[in-house]
Write a structure and sequence with these properties.
The protein is α+β, with helices and mostly antiparallel strands and 228 residues long. The protein folds into two domains: 80 residues, Aminopeptidase, CATH 3.40.630; 129 residues, Aminopeptidase, CATH 3.40.630. It has an eleven-stranded mixed β-sheet. A hairpin with a 2-residue loop joins strand 7 and strand 8. The longest helix is centred in the last third of the chain and has 15 residues. The chain is globular, with a radius of gyration of 17 Å. The termini are far apart. The model has no long low-confidence stretch (mean pLDDT 94).
Length: 228
């Protein structure tokens, strides 16, 4: 029988920024955002309360990204540059396995990780995102050619993020091996993984389904900014 889902999955950014990642947050009333050097993700306590988005508007300096299980009631305080559905998938049934070629990445690898993310486009990635969780990578010589890591921290569950492979190295199973290795490390610490993927990213969805990630719920993504 599948265990109940951990708390916080309906509003993962809010759960992370009000808990384990509070030190990375800028806060205004019911609104929270990661400081921009760490991530462009933000949250409100109630995504269906327009007044909470009025508070979030006070924290904007640039477009921000939101992920939540409920629809977003922006109430005219913010506009959505785009909004699309996706899936939240849990990794508690995925087989973990160590990967001998994987190495832990840290602060000294931040510039390389950002460069790889810029090249491979796994989703929003900032210059200090690598400090938010555990990142592992594979090198060819001295060059970082693949990586995977964790971003939002819900306590007993962390969000898989930053899965990126240099296009010249795709098709070798590096992403799959790194995700299994990361899960091996997280389980050793008593944690599981969750991920968020746009419904249009069919290749990634197929890969994660093949690995054993299970669909938990539909999730909504939006990029928001002040009304023009």
């Amino acid at each position: 029988m599948t265990a109940p889902a951990p708390a916080g999955l309906d509003n993962p950014v809010a759960a992370s920024l009000s808990g384990a990642h509070a030190q990375f947050a800028a806060v205004h009333g019911p609104a929270r955002r990661y400081r921009p050097e760490y991530s462009l993700f933000a949250s409100v306590e109630d995504p269906q309360d327009p007044s909470h988005f009025a508070a979030l508007a006070e924290l904007l300096g640039e477009d921000l990204a939101i992920v939540a299980a409920s629809s977003l009631e922006l109430g005219g305080h913010l506009e959505a540059g785009f909004s699309l559905p996706g899936f939240q998938m849990l990794g508690d049934e995925v087989a973990a396995a160590p990967f001998a070629d994987a190495e832990l990445l840290g602060v000294a690898d931040a510039a390389e990780a950002l460069a790889l993310a810029t090249l491979a486009q796994p989703g929003p990635f900032s210059e200090r995102t690598i400090e938010l969780g555990t990142f592992v990578g594979v090198r060819d010589g001295r060059a970082l050619v693949a990586m995977a890591g964790t971003r939002f921290d819900l306590g007993g569950i962390r969000e898989l993020s930053g899965v990126a492979t240099d296009p010249a190295y795709r098709g070798r199973g590096l992403a799959r091996s790194l995700v299994r290795h990361l899960l091996y490390l997280e389980r050793d610490a008593g944690r599981e993984l969750v991920l968020h993927v746009a419904e249009t990213n069919l290749g990634a969805i197929a890969l994660y389904e093949q690995m054993g990630f299970r669909h938990h719920q539909v999730i909504h993504f939006a990029q928001v900014h002040r009304p023009s």
